[in-house]
Amino acid sequence: MDAPPLPVILIGGGILAFAALFAWAVLREGRRQERDRDRALAEALAPLGWTWERVEALRERIRPFGALGTARNPIPGAARRTVETPAGPARLFLFHQVAISTRKAGLFTACLAELPRPLGGELVATAAGPAGVRLSRAALSDTATTGDDAFDRRFVVTARPAETASALLDDETRADLLGAAGALSAPLVLQVRGGRFVVHNDVSAASSMTRPEDYAALARLAEGLARRWSAGAGA
User: Fold this and answer.
1) Cα–Cα distance measured from residue 125 to residue 119, given in angstroms and rounded to the nearest whole number
2) pLDDT by residue (tens digit) across 176-189?
3) Cα separation of 55 and 172, whole Å?
4) Residues 222 and 199 sit within 8 Å (Cβ to Cβ)
5) Is 159 in a helix, a strand, or coil?
6) Where are the domains of the chain?
7) pTM tops 0.90, yes or no
8) Is residue 205 packed enough to be buried (19+ CB in 10 Å), middle (13-18) or exposed (0-12)?
9) DSSP character string of 92-146
10) How many Å apart are CA 75 and CA 219, to the nearest integer?
11) Which one of 53, 81, 128, 208 is least enclosed by Cβ atoms within 10 Å?
12) What percent of the chain lies above the pLDDT cut of 90?
């Protein structure tokens, strides 16, 4: 079989080289954007007492938390704060995570809290518009309501066991969640599992939280919940 003509070889090689250079440029730009986001996060939270650092095994620690935990991208670092409570220190980590999978794609801004005591159950509260709340309640069999009309119109809650919802979502917590949902630039999600919880944006809504105001609001919410729940709520 005759070898392909030299012009064909040159054209093929040029296409491969272009593809390799394009992929490298895309990767480089993605890393630059990642560094810029993390720098903005660190600068926004430094006045609130948070410090940026590398955190070992952070991806493993968020693995139980749905789509946030199944994202496979590395997390280079996080803004960190330790909150002292009567039960012991609560550790908070605020970070970005890129979600690229067959089910979800987007940018998470999330805060993981590790508490000094377990909370006794699992809970997910997701902010949505009135239509989204109605559709979710129609589709899910285990949603819970709190009796607070303003909160129940804004959040879809699932809990196991069912009493976890009433134990964790007291008046102050519901007010904090409603306030944060109104301040953030993307729908808010709260997930609780054992002695950990995360608050983050809902990437299925195709929006992100990358403003300095978002970082500050998420940090204040997580710190307030960590203090309250470490002190005894949800026992």
Assistant:
1) 15
2) 999 999 999 999 99
3) 31
4) yes
5) strand
6) 6-230
7) no
8) middle
9) EEEEEEEEESSS-EEEEEEEEEE-SS--SSEEEEEE--HHHHHHHHHH-SSEE--
10) 18
11) 53
12) 56
